[in-house]
Amino acid sequence: MIPFLDLKTPYFELKQELDDAIARVVSSGWFIGGEEVDQFEVEYASYCGAAHAIGVANGLDALHLALRAMDVGAGDEVIVPSNTYIATWLAVTQCGAIPVPVEPDERTFNINPALLEAAITPRTKVILPVHLYGQPADLDHVLLIARKHGLRVLEDGAQAHGARYKGERLGAHGDAVAWSFYPGKNLGAMGDGGAVTTNDTQLADRLRVLRNYGSRVKYVNEMQGYNSRLDPLQAAILRVKLAHLDKWNERRKLAAAQYLKDLIGSGVVLPYVPDWADPVWHLFVVRCAKRDALHQRLAASGVSTLIHYPIPPHRQEAYADAGWQVNEFPLANQMADEVLSLPMGPHLSENQRQQVVVSLRANVTADD
Ligand SMILES: *Cc1c(COP(=O)(O)O)cnc(C)c1O
Predict the structure, then answer these.
(1) Which of 13, 161, 223, 318 could be cross-linked to 186 through a Cys-Cys bond (beta carbons 3.0 to 4.6 Å apart)?
(2) Where are the transmembrane segments (predicted)?
(3) Cβ atoms 252, 280 nearer than 8 A
């Protein structure tokens, strides 16, 4: 069986370095905040080309706390993609605010800037583009519209560590970028983790207070904050893995380039990369009208594929009370019906990748 993503081999590739980092934290007796978290924040901010990185407990909290730090609250509207992981929407509703979905550009899967202005109302506060599947959203267009209307931009970078927009790494194009270090992400911890990067010193300061019970000085609480801290053990692990991120992203890019070459004419719609985008291929997503059959046939032939995501947020039971109609976002629905993520990762071997190609070619055209 070819795994969708191998989470064991990364450890063995970096075993000595990771074991040393873990032992360093365990033997320090320092388990909340401290040097490892501070150092990771410095290193990750520098990697992203941002002035500040603020570690938090996970990617959802990174989004939620960043919105809180931007003063998003009850009745405010936040523009989100109609096709994203539900965390993007949950961060908005956790603030008491309203997600206003905008459909994607069908070729890139990312939010369509041409549809943004029609979604803006006097209550809109933030535009929240997602760099879905590791490909940067069209930030210049988003930022232009945001500036024109006095809105802030929070980017969901959970799938795009190291990706570049027009040559520049993601991290500080908008007002802030929220990151997840969930184990399966391009920069993954060995548990949960997250961060926000920003060039806005005031926003960074608010985030540092918000993540720590609303407190700057112990037992003095200036706001009703949260307990959402990046674990020093995870920070130490992330410091090791950050040093290898570019190399691992390069392996993903190589695998993606080969998929793109080998799957021409295979009958599936291949990912489209605009010339200004330098994606990091968190996922390699193809489209196929008979997706479910292909998914099953591939599984039967020993190739694990996944669907990101099978139910768009507006059709989740979690939002049943919000009043969105099933057919309100046809592109989100179509993506949910057609997308299929092929095995991808820094430890996918050439041999495995070729097997995926052979298997996909054999199964996509097979009769039902
Ligand atoms: C993974 C992910 C998140 C949430 O990250 P967690 O660390 O799991 O909370 C948010 N947005 C997107 C697009 C993601 O892929």
Answers:
(1) 161
(2) none
(3) yes
Atom of ligand 1 nearest to the CA of 63: 10
pTM, to two decimals:
0.98
Residue 192 CA: nearest ligand 1 atom is: 7
Is 89 touching ligand 1 by the criterion CB < 6 Å?
Answer: no
Residue nearest to atom 4 of ligand 1 (CA): 59
Residue 268 Rama label (left phi>0; alpha psi -120 to 50; beta): beta
What domains are there in the chain, each with its CATH number? 7-102+111-239 (3.40.640.10), 245-365 (3.90.1150.10)
Q: Whose CA is nearest to atom 7 of ligand 1?
A: 59
- Asked if residue 180 has its Cβ within 6 Å of ligand 1, the reply is yes
What confidence tens digit (pLDDT) does each residue in 191-247 have? 999 999 999 999 999 999 999 999 999 999 999 999 999 999 999 999 999 999 999
- Per-residue pLDDT of 62-108, as tens digits, reads 999 999 999 999 999 999 999 999 999 999 999 999 999 999 999 99
Q: Which residue has the tokens 């330098």?
A: 278
**Cα 273 to Cα 119: distance, rounded to the nearest angstrom:** 26
Both tokens of residue 163?
A: 């990706």
Ligand 1 centroid–CA 262 distance in Å is: 30
pLDDT per position as a tens digit, 228-237:
999 999 999 9
Report pLDDT for 366.
56
Active site residue 125: no
Q: Which of the following is catalytic: 125, 185, 241, 290? A: 185
Structure tokens at 341: 């993520």
261 SS3 class? helix
Contacts of 15 (CB under 8 A, 6+ apart): none
Q: Which residues are registered as beta bridge partners of 227?
A: 212
Integer CA distances (angstroms), 241 to 17, 181, 322, in order: 9, 11, 40
- Beta-bridged to residue 198, according to DSSP, are 52
